[in-house]
UniProtKB/TrEMBL annotation:
Pfam families: Epimerase. InterPro entries: Epimerase_deHydtase, Lipid_A_modif_metabolic_enz, NAD(P)-bd_dom_sf. Residues 1-46 are annotated as: Disordered. Residues 57-303 form the NAD-dependent epimerase/dehydratase domain. This is NAD-dependent epimerase/dehydratase domain-containing protein. Residues 37-46 have a biased composition (Basic and acidic residues). It comes from the Bacteria.
Length: 385
């Protein structure tokens, strides 16, 4: 493998040898500007999560990117956290990066489809966060049977056992994929509202929409556990790593390609729009959904409200690599043109706003990648040799 390209700093007006149109007119980070005008948001989040001290929280799928960051946040709040995860979604090296086994939580390596295991864990739980899923559009398309087992059967088991328990509230992690391409015939980036018609385009999106409906059906009655549904937009941030054959995790993919000196591949020309929301912000939103009274029975977007095209993200990555270049490819099956989150509900019901803007977040990721060479998957590095 050739030596990794030199990493450079990025300034707001940096223009590298990468085509300048990818960076021209890219907005500065409104989130970063607004953050400086307010009190420390982390301290405010910690204050609101204080009621979770000594609460027993089960996090399914807690060994992954969002789950590990959420688990760290809950442990910091003083909760007694149990993680249920098969720990096979990534190669072992990736799970080592996530480090859920080093956070102070109890780690149960098992399957949400195993009813006896789920029943035992939920029997003493106060809260549940259900993250466990085959969370990859391409993998679900290739292996719909696995998607059915994990995303439908596993969710059904968790919901039934939650309904039969003394759990106070379950938070279900859904996806902006349920919106598909949004309103037919609309031009330009679309703002996705929680109440608009849903038009999923993939096996993965279909599975998430079904799970949303089932959550409301099984946990929507009086006297039982409460529920809240969060629709995550495009989650990114260290220590995210891509999977073979996936077209998700755009920031990680593009950064690693540039780091290895390979052209950044822009599927569909990179015109797709994403609302990139940092994993630390997603973890905070998810934890707050456990305790915020107004979230009971509600569905809320978790995004920044800022649209960013794949091509623009490539430009932000390229600002760190003087020799970066790109190629284009076909748009994959099930890959939506996308849109961005309407954020009224997240501000009003969840009382949450994201802290980390996309420019800052991409810079953090590229620098983390430079400092963590073991994060480069061996299969990706070998393919570039």
């Amino acid at each position: 493998m050739s030596e990794a390209p030199h990493l450079v700093g990025v300034e707001p007006d940096d223009r590298t040898a990468f085509p300048s149109d990818l960076l021209s007119d890219f907005p500065s980070d409104p989130l970063s500007h607004s953050r400086s005008a307010h009190a420390d948001p982390r301290a405010e989040t910690d204050r609101r999560l204080a009621e979770l001290r000594d609460a027993r929280v089960v996090v399914t799928g807690g060994g992954g990117l969002v789950g590990s960051r959420l688990t760290a946040l809950l442990c910091r709040a003083g909760a007694a956290v149990t993680v249920l995860d098969r720990m096979d979604a990534y190669p072992e090296a990736a799970h080592t990066l996530f480090g859920v086994d080093r956070l102070g939580a109890d780690l149960v390596v098992d399957d949400v489809c195993e009813r006896d295991v789920v029943r035992r864990l939920l029997g003493g739980a106060d809260y549940v966060v259900h993250l466990a899923a085959c969370a990859d559009v391409a993998a679900c398309t290739r292996r719909p049977g696995e998607a059915f087992r994990s995303n439908l059967q596993g969710t059904q088991v968790v919901l039934e056992e939650t309904a039969a328990s003394r759990v106070r509230r379950l938070v279900f992690a859904s996806s902006a994929a349920v919106y598909g391409d949004g309103r037919p015939g609309a031009e330009g980036p679309q703002e996705f509202h929680e109440d608009q018609p849903l038009r999923p385009l993939s096996v993965y999106a279909n599975s998430k929409l079904w799970a949303e409906h089932q959550t409301r059906l099984l946990l929507g009655g009086p006297g039982g556990p409460e529920h809240a549904v969060l629709r995550y937009f495009s989650v990114y941030g260290a220590p995210q790593v891509p999977k073979p054959g996936s077209h998700s995790w755009m920031v990680a993919w593009l950064s690693m390609q540039a780091r290895l000196g390979r052209p950044m591949r822009l599927n569909g020309g990179g015109v797709q729009v994403r609302d990139l929301v940092h994993v630390d912000d997603v973890a905070a939103a998810t934890a707050l959904a456990l305790v915020e009274e107004r979230m009971a029975g509600r569905t809320v977007n978790v995004g920044t409200g800022t649209p960013t095209s794949v091509r623009e993200v490539a430009g932000l990555v390229a600002a760190h690599f003087p020799e970066a270049r790109c190629i284009t490819g076909d748009r994959p099956e099930g890959d939506p043109l996308g849109g961005y989150a309407a954020t009224d509900r997240s501000r009003e019901l969840l009382r949450w706003t994201p802290r980390i803007g996309v420019r800052e977040g991409v810079t953090q990721y590229v620098r983390w990648l430079a400092a963590t060479p073991r994060a480069l998957p061996s299969w990706l590095a070998e393919s570039a040799a």
